Amino acid sequence: MLPFASNAASKPQPTLQLEADASGNWSGQFELSPGVSVINFSAGRLGQSPATPLVVTFRRDSSSSERSAAEQAAKKKAASKLAAANKARAAEQRRKADQAAAAAQQRSACITVPNVVGTNHQGAQDTMQAAGLYSLAEEDATGQGRMLLLDRNWVVVSQNPTGGKCVSADTTITLSSKKIGE
C-alpha cells in the first residue's frame, strides 16, 4: 500500500494499493479512510511505448461498500448491546454495594450498652463514651435533685437503658447515681 501524504496527522490517510499482473495490467483499491469509501480500479497499457498513456477505469464496488456498511451497522449494534449489558452490570453492582453498605450501617448503628452499675460516675461516663454513646444524662438517685459536681464521688446505682441492650448512637443514656457511702 502506498499512503498519500496529508498535512493533518490526526486524520486517517487515504491509501492506494496497486498490483500488476504478468501482462502489465494494473489493478488496485483506493481507500479514503480505513473501512470507508473503497473504490476499486483497473488500468492497462494501450501500447508498448513508454509515451503511451495509461487508461484507468474507476468503479465503485457497491457490494464491498454495502458489506462494509452492513458490517459497521452490525458492529455498532453489537457495541450498543455490550454497552447496555455493561450499564446493567454496573447498576447491579451499585445496587449490591448500596445494600451491603446499608446492612453494614444497620450493624454498626447497633451499639451494645455497657453495664456500668456499681462503678463511679466518672468511670461510667468514660465507659459509655468509649462504646460510642455520647448522649448522657445524669440524675441524683436519692430524689433530692442534687447536681453531680464531683463525678468521682458518686456511684451509679441504675441506668436506662440497661446494660446489654442494643441502641443507636444517638440514644440518651440516663445514669442514676448516689454519693459514695450513702
Please, could you describe this protein's structure?
With 182 residues, the chain is of the alpha+beta class. It folds into 3 domains: 24-60, no CATH class; 62-109; 111-179, 2-Layer Sandwich (Trypsin Inhibitor V, Chain A), CATH 3.30.10.20. 32% of the residues lie in helices and 31% in strands. It is built from 2 helices and 10 strands. It has helices at 62-109, 121-130, and strands at residues 2-3, 15-20, 26-33, 36-45, 54-60, 111-112, 136-140, 154-160, 166-167, 173-179. The strands form 3 sheets. The chain has a 5-stranded antiparallel beta sheet, with helices on one face. β3 and β4 (36-45) form a beta hairpin. The chain is rod-shaped, with a radius of gyration of 43 Å. Mean pLDDT is 78; it is low at 1-8 and 49-54.
Residue share in helix: 25-40%
- Outline: rod-shaped
Uncertain runs are: 1-8, 49-54
CATH class of the largest domain: Alpha Beta
Mean pLDDT metric: 78
Q: What count of structural domains?
A: 3
- As a percent range, the share of strand residues is 25-35%
SSE string, helix = H, strand = E?
Answer: EEEEEHEHEEEE
Count of helix runs: 2
Helix/strand-derived category reads alpha+beta
Q: How many angstroms separate the termini?
A: 104 Å
The appropriate CATH architecture of the largest domain is: 2-Layer Sandwich
Largest sheet: 5 strands, antiparallel
Strand elements, count: 10
Strand order of the largest sheet: 1-2-3-4-5
Notable features of this structure?
2 helices; rod-shaped; three-stranded mixed sheet; five-stranded antiparallel sheet; 182 residues; 10 strands; alpha+beta; disordered N terminus; Trypsin Inhibitor V, Chain A
